[in-house]
Amino acid sequence: MPEGPELFRVARRIQRALGRAPLIEARCAFDAVDRRLVGRVGGPPPRVTTLGKALMLVFDDGARVYTHNQLYGRWMFSAPDRRPDTARQLRLVLSTEQRSALLYSASEIEWVEPGATHPFLDRVGLDVLSSDASVETIAQWIGRAGFRRRQLGHLLLDQGFLAGVGNYLRSEILFMACLSPGHRPMDLDDHRLEALAEAVHTLMWRSVETGGITNDPDRAEALKRSGWARRDYRHYVFSRADQACFACDGVIEKVEVSGRRLYRCPRCQPPP
Questions:
Q1: Catalytic residue among 2, 5, 46, 185
Q2: What does the alpha-carbon distance between residue 20 and residue 178 come to, in Å, rounded to a whole number?
Q3: Which is the catalytic residue, given 260, 261, 266, 267?
Q4: Active-site choice (3, 40, 172, 206)
Q5: pLDDT digits (tens, 9 = 90+) for 57-66
Q6: Nearest 5°: CA angle at 203, between 173 and 55?
Q7: What are the C-alpha distances in Å from 137 to residues 127, 133, 166?
Q8: Using CA atoms, how far apart are residues 272 and 269, in angstroms rounded to an integer?
Q9: Which domains are present in the chain?
Q10: Other CB atoms within 10 Å distance of the CB of residue 5
Q11: Separation between Cα atoms, residue 89 and residue 100, nearest integer Å
């Protein structure tokens, strides 16, 4: 399942593809959404935004189409009179005279009336990307009472905490902040809390701009030029079990936390 930065990049592509030209086609494979989309033809396309791992199409009157790719959903793009060569099932179409944005295989597509709530939107936490939250705002959010006693190895996968953080970002954030999965926000002084917030902000935006590379940009580029495979230079620790830590030459280990694999450097990330 794509994490927040990957979906944020998709949202940018959809927005660029549609621009502000009038819609010439708007339809959905799900009748409840399709009936409402039909009336949008001839009007401006929606604004495209993300909230964690959900993507929303927001029309000028506040009506929204909520979509969640889950494991198999995928956005594709084409000329309005053509369709990609794929065996996937087409679920949602938005077209202008210049371009079509097409959602395939997604199972969660819902219409949300202006001012109405949605279960996912009600429980989702801070989205660093869509809100453009500052490091200070992130630090204040992490320090909230409801999060203070929970271990970060579990907390970082909770979409009610930091929306859009998934498995690779969890490992990378903890490494950059020099924290173990067992640390809790209440264990952190102001300096370490700010370091955690800085890691969240830096890595989420770095992943957006680099297409998923979280390693130090200069190091990643040097390793790429040296012939390293992307899987080996892409991250600080994630998916690098038994390899040398870039910071201390210690051996990266793989553990399981919240039923998901987590990678860490025991030297750089000692327990609390």
A1: 2
A2: 44
A3: 260
A4: 3
A5: 999 999 999 9
A6: 105
A7: 11, 6, 20
A8: 9
A9: 4-123 (3.20.190.10), 128-264 (1.10.8.50)
A10: 27
A11: 16
Tell me the torsion sign for CA atoms 36, 127, 104, 109. negative
Residue 269 Cα to chain centre, angstroms: 24
Neighbours of 259 (CB within 10 A): 7
Active site residue 2: yes
pLDDT tens digits for 22-66?
999 999 999 999 999 999 999 999 999 999 889 999 999 999 999
Residue 242, amino acid: D
Q: Which pTM was predicted? A: 0.92
Contact (CB, 8 A) for 182 and 153: yes
Q: Is 125 helix (H, G, I), strand (E, B) or coil?
A: coil
> Distance from CA of residue 206 to its chain's centroid?
12
253, 264 Cβ separation under 8 angstroms: yes
Cβ–Cβ under 8 Å, residues 252 and 244: yes
Active-site residue flag, 53: yes
Active-site annotation holder among 5, 27, 45, 53: 53
Q: Strand 47-51 to strand 260-264: parallel, antiparallel, or no bridges (unpaired)?
A: unpaired
